Amino acid sequence: MPCDWFLSINEAFENTIVINKSRFITTLLPIKDYDDAIKKIKEINKLYSDATHNCYAFISNVQATEQRFSDDGEPQGTAGIPMLEVLKKRKVYMTLAVVTRYFGGIKMGANGLVGAYSSSVSQALDEAVLVKNQSADILKIKVGYGIYKKIEDCVESYEGQVVSTEYGNDVVLEVAVPVEKSKDFCDKTIDISLDKAIVEKIETKYFQFKI
User: Which of 38, 55, 164, 178 gets the most CB atoms within 10 Å of its CB?
Assistant: First the structure.
């Protein structure tokens, strides 16, 4: 079953750190599926063909069951797995992480490499713009001008988001509300409007909430 929520990125992001004179370049890329991840890994390998190593990790489905990693010549278990563990711990899916290493002449040992590769991915995720993909009900709400601002405030209080607003004889809001809070939100909307609001469920899907 798909998870209730996961994090991802929408745009490519790159971050560089230097540890013991080795340069570690972390590239984060959004991916659609396994094949897309493999394609982008090949592109990174071509871009950084002169690097000492191009190690990677990714989770390419929302169930988090499709996972791949590579040490790309680093000692076994010192790069790909630590990178993957960061993605798993932070629930970052549908995202490819590639850490490109330019060797600086100082050997780091197994523990040092594990720390370097995991830190590289962690710091990149700290700096990148992430979105929260959460199972949500998409609702259309028709209300009068006198209370639509209260409905907008109610959406926010239920950790939802207003998708669009149309102004006509009435105000029509399209909103996304986390599934587990949707029923209570609908009940609250009816209460606020004194039973005058018209609430229609459009669909249930993963929606990207800002974090």
Answer: 55
Look at residue 2 and tell me whether its pLDDT is greater than 90.
no
Q: Does domain 134-210 have CATH number 3.30.70.240?
A: yes
Phi-psi domain of 7 (left: phi exceeds 0; alpha: psi -120 through 50; beta: other): beta
DSSP string, 13-68: EEEEEEETTEEEEEEEEE-SSHHHHHHHHHHHHHHTTTSSEEEEEEE-STTS--EE
Confidence of residue 211 (pLDDT cuts 50, 70, 90): confident
Tokens of 207: 């929606």
Candidates 108, 44, 26, 105; CA nearest to 75 is 108
Phi and psi torsions of 136, nearest 5°: -140, 150
